[in-house]
## 1
Amino acid sequence: MPKNFQSLPPSEPSFWVKRHLERADIVIVGGGLVGLLTSIRLKEKFPKREVWVLDQSPFLWSASWRNAGFACYGSAGELIDEARRSSRSQALELYRRRFEGLVSLREEFGDAALGFEASGGWELFQTEAEAQSVIQTLDEWNQDLKSVSGISPFQIRSSQSLGMRIASQAIFASQEGAIQSHLLLRSVRNKALSLGVECYEGQAVSHLEPTESQSWMLELESGLSLKARELVLCTNAYTRLLQEEVDLKPARGQILVTSAMPELPFRGIFHADQGYLYARTLGTRLLLGGGRNLDFAEEETLHSEENTAIRNHLLNYLKEVLVPGQEFSIQEQWSGIMAMGESREPIVKQSAPGFYLAVRMGGMGVALSSEVAQGVSRLLS
Ligand SMILES: Cc1cc2nc3c(=O)[nH]c(=O)nc-3n(C[C@H](O)[C@H](O)[C@H](O)COP(=O)(O)OP(=O)(O)OC[C@H]3O[C@@H](n4cnc5c(N)ncnc54)[C@H](O)[C@@H]3O)c2cc1C
């Protein structure tokens, strides 16, 4: 008797499977948040077309299921970093895309369905000098962002009530909040299915090729192959396994979750170190992630192992800065893989006839996902 399914010999596809695989009009590769939202937008635009989503992994695996669940647009420190990396106008445009993306995600699915908590977000600083260097830029950012968010998004607040070992002033952004990632994914996937999108998990695409009849042939690792008139890659960090020339790099993100603490003097989401460190409350537990800037080279990987130096850095930040004097243990730990580029702009484009890319979602892909899906939908006719 075989011990599991993998030890069974592969079976030949049936007549019915082959006929089924001829039916897809639009195939989306990648069933994370971006792929699923894209499938919704395309099915709404082309209700008569067969829209399929293929994902290599079993259900519940992608970065969309492994993130920190921040509903954020970019702290002032991150905006400064982004403006340095690209330009001030690009940093402002990216903020607008994230802000409007989150607004439409919340409008489409409703706050209860996303587990949205309007907690506000804090930017924390280790030293007074670091705090002042960001605070002195706030008037200008607030002026430029008012037309996007309807208010001046950044307020200076005393950090005393937080009980952390940080600079005396912090920056509060009242419109930020937190979601529960599994609730968001469930809502999005259910909507896609209810519209008639077909989702197939456990189907890794290993090769893509244009055909003479102006469609695309996809080979799957299972040995099956299928044709699509139009093909959209929403494969984010894994894109270069299929299309080597795409300009992105994988970037691993580590996350730790503490045990419950007797009490926490704060709640909400927290950014530090230009966004490279992020924390949020989960009841009286704390989720802390990031630290990639400690070892960029090592974290440029598709592998999801622990990085001990980064784990220690996160642990130290918890003990020394966020909750000094509190007793806790680390109860959960995982990592996920993002996709980064020199610019934080996502890639949303047609790269060949019938072939589209929606990848490189950076560290705030939840916020961008909705706007990116709309962008793909505008490209297809
Ligand atoms: C640790 C961590 C914390 C984060 N925290 C936040 C946060 O708090 N807020 C926020 O806005 N963003 C956050 N992000 C970023 C956000 O999660 C991502 O930007 C977003 O989920 C990307 O969605 P996606 O659909 O593009 O990619 P993914 O969710 O990675 O989905 C891509 C899918 O493509 C599939 N795939 C790849 N190659 C193939 C192939 N050849 N064949 C078939 N399928 C394939 C993969 O299996 C995967 O399911 C975080 C990310 C990480 C890793």
## 2
Amino acid sequence: MADAAAFFDHARIPEVAKNAGFLPNSISETKAYLRRSVSEWRQRRPERMTFSIILKGQRRWIGSIELRWLNPGIGEIGFFIHHNQWGKGFATEAASAVVRWAFAKGKAHRLQGSCWTKNAASIRVMKKLGFRKEGILRGYAKVVKQLQDDILFGKTIADR
Ligand SMILES: CC(C)(COP(=O)(O)OP(=O)(O)OC[C@H]1O[C@@H](n2cnc3c(N)ncnc32)[C@H](O)[C@@H]1OP(=O)(O)O)[C@@H](O)C(=O)NCCC(=O)NCCS
């Protein structure tokens, strides 16, 4: 909960909200989102696992990686990094750790993720994680109230 203000400060930036598509848009929604994330962790097999990214040595929240189990063994990842920290490799470093964990310990056999077609940074991160482009999800994302196409990326245990 201590991270709520930093989280919302980030989520309210139009460029972030536009690309992430799922961020809360008030401080009370942010707190509800964080409370839900914490309570999910207390379950034996959480459906949604939200990992905080903390800057080494500073105990400062700089972003999150979400792993949502769509089915047993099939997870969907999403990520966002505080805008002050973009371009330093943090999304790639943190998401790589979650992907490794999901295959090695989380019993995943397939991971997937998607982002809208103009989200160049996210597309690049997916590729750096070794995800392959699998197709286009037409009209999947609502970006600034407009339906847009998403690119679906996937990685299987055989691709590790
Ligand atoms: C997408 C996001 C998580 C990337 O975080 P990050 O920590 O900056 O990512 P990294 O530094 O690990 O890698 C970013 C890569 O994208 C590239 N990139 C950034 N902006 C780019 C652009 N406009 N065009 C092309 N490539 C771009 C960077 O050069 C880097 O690639 P490189 O290592 O080959 O140089 C961050 O931009 C973000 O939080 N965006 C808003 C939320 C969002 O879009 N989430 C994804 C929804 S699934």
